[in-house]
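Lab notebook, page 48
Experiment: co-folding of the full assembly
Goal: obtain a model of how the components sit together before planning crosslinking
Operator: M.T.
Materials (sequences as entered):
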Amino acid sequence: MKPNFSLRLRVFNLNCWDIPYLSKHRADRMERLGDFLNLESFDLALLEEVWSEQDFQYLRQKLSLTYPDAHYFRSGIIGSGLCVFSKHPIQEIMQHVYTLNGYPYMVCHGDWFCGKAVGLLVLHLSGLVLNAYVTHLHAEYSRQKDIYLAHRVAQAWELAQFIHHTSKNADVVLLCGDLNMHPKDLGCCLLKEWTGLRDAYIETQDFKGSEDGCTMVPKNCYVSQQDLGPFPFGIRIDYVLYKAVSGFCISCKTLKTTSGSDPHSGTPFSDHEALMATLYVRHSPPQQDPSPTNGPPERSSLIGVLREAWTELGLGIAQARWWAAFAGYVIVLGLFLLVLLCVLAAGERAMEVAILLWTPNIGLVLGAGAIYLFHMQEAKGLCQAQAELQHVLGRVRETQNPRLGPHLAQLLASGGEQS
Amino acid sequence: MKPNFSLRLRVFNLNCWDIPYLSKHRADRMERLGDFLNLESFDLALLEEVWSEQDFQYLRQKLSLTYPDAHYFRSGIIGSGLCVFSKHPIQEIMQHVYTLNGYPYMVCHGDWFCGKAVGLLVLHLSGLVLNAYVTHLHAEYSRQKDIYLAHRVAQAWELAQFIHHTSKNADVVLLCGDLNMHPKDLGCCLLKEWTGLRDAYIETQDFKGSEDGCTMVPKNCYVSQQDLGPFPFGIRIDYVLYKAVSGFCISCKTLKTTSGSDPHSGTPFSDHEALMATLYVRHSPPQQDPSPTNGPPERSSLIGVLREAWTELGLGIAQARWWAAFAGYVIVLGLFLLVLLCVLAAGERAMEVAILLWTPNIGLVLGAGAIYLFHMQEAKGLCQAQAELQHVLGRVRETQNPRLGPHLAQLLASGGEQS
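Observation: model returned without errors.
Model output:
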């Protein structure tokens, strides 16, 4: 590789709002998206919410000449909705499905049925190893009373851990997707602090965004409209994040969004805006490596965000255990009622009423049983994420104060977080 | 690091058969296991089937001086059962829960409720990065009619992928655990071919095993007694696998098992025998690196095993889709019967019978609905594993015949496997 080596990487990200039977103008939007991607010829196009495999196959065929390699990530009941189209050969593929992803009984929200995941693609570009990740985290339905906060923090931690452990010999790391978190949200900070990923929107020298407000986001109403900074449509939950790991530096030359409509026909691609980033990768002497991963100045902010996440997961664990205990009481009550109904049915007077009440009562016991098992599983998943966070806290504190042994640091970490 | 650098690594692995209310003599066995581990002072002790967190905490306290670092991996409803005790500080921890793990309605087998997983520990030993993995795959209840074969192959592939992608900057990789597979089983071959891991039992210069047959395995009857080689107790489903990634070579000096009893008191630790390996890591010039990962001579066997796994997963997908379709028909039938019962209940003559049949009918519809959703999810998980296998097949064939473009190779790979 020459010392003046430079690689340009053009990346496209879009949450496609491609939900069979629910999303409007799917066929038309997919067709225009295909035309646009063919015209622009990005290096990588990473898409979320492509919940129709037929639509993926349609795009795959339409884009086959410009993007010869593609992959559709399958998980859960409905699917992860993630897919990718690449101009360059994809060397390796892997998927990690998040342990926690909402509640099965929240059918109207539906995230649980999707099997939210992170997809990894390894590409070799001009001798450079690029790890590209695409993901979609649990939606936020109410900012004021967010019952999914602990799950989203756990997902952000799993995502950060997955990137941290799978990118150790990558030269460049790229994460695109719909994180369903605002830039200063706990999960977003946790992800950035633990992986060292940088936000293209903050880092870019040249941002071109829509100025005429959001288009279909308010109609879909699945994210609140709280204003968080100068982003044109008020909310920012889709991201292009990146870092160079060693010997390279990466910068974002331009970041563009669509402007409530696609650049050619004037109607929107989706209920989200697309992100289009142009990144440059260059050689960098090791001492000038700008990667901020776990450097001493950032350590205090890492500790802060780890502690905050630890507390949030702790609240989630308490909540999960409360629901499991409540479901346990309901099971006991339901079983008692069943016995009572059997006694009543044995007599003559209330036999019909007793038989009529069997159905809802058996439903109650089975439903409570399912809820009990589900929340036990939820508690276990949250406990694992919390234990991993606590371990990292112990290690970070130990490197801060090497005179502490590893076990004393671990003890202090756990002591500090135990309520 | 000196050129004559050599590191000795003593490793202990045991499936502990520690199931609350079911396993016999738990307290006594845990106490003796703790004494033995303290006495032997291994570098790493990796345990499976520790399904009682109280027992883990008991061992943690008992072993705290000899093994100052420990971790319990939490997942699923009951737990993964995995834990680890380390003499050296654990630098990093991560867990990956397998996407597929049996069927929730197979309550008597219970694997689905456990959340089977793989745990990763990163250790730094004398400047060497050691990635140690501990896992436990789905049990085999019948070798002749193994309904879990596709799930175990998918788990083996996920395990292989997890190791492949997370160990890229490790110097030494170690995998211990209960794979529930015989050495020549498809999943075991897939794991070894894709990761390059070598079997301590095959590689060791000095094997000392029990000679008085198996102890509690036949009583527990959850694995068949088919003889597969000279291993003392006939079946071999617990493994110590290892490899050195680059610049190092690793060899197994000794491999010992317990002999139907613990070495001191004469009664067994568990219904499995423990494995105790002494490994030596040395410097190795890169050209003498014995790591067989994907080298040209092994490529044809890799292709063979990938194709076989592809076919097995295909059979699993067909089965999952059949069950989903069957459950779909049952739902339609159940709904039709519900309407019929409503009509009967409206009349006078058969009202009581109709009301009495509501409960089982509603149960039928709900049960079939759950089975439909579950098998849809199963098909998605198997499809993802199959797609990843197909992608690897395409890449391997492309490197075999570089004149083929990546897309032609992919096409050939998919064409060859499509039925």
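Interpretation: Chain A touches chain B through 52 residues (CB under 8 Å).
Next step: discuss with group before ordering constructs.
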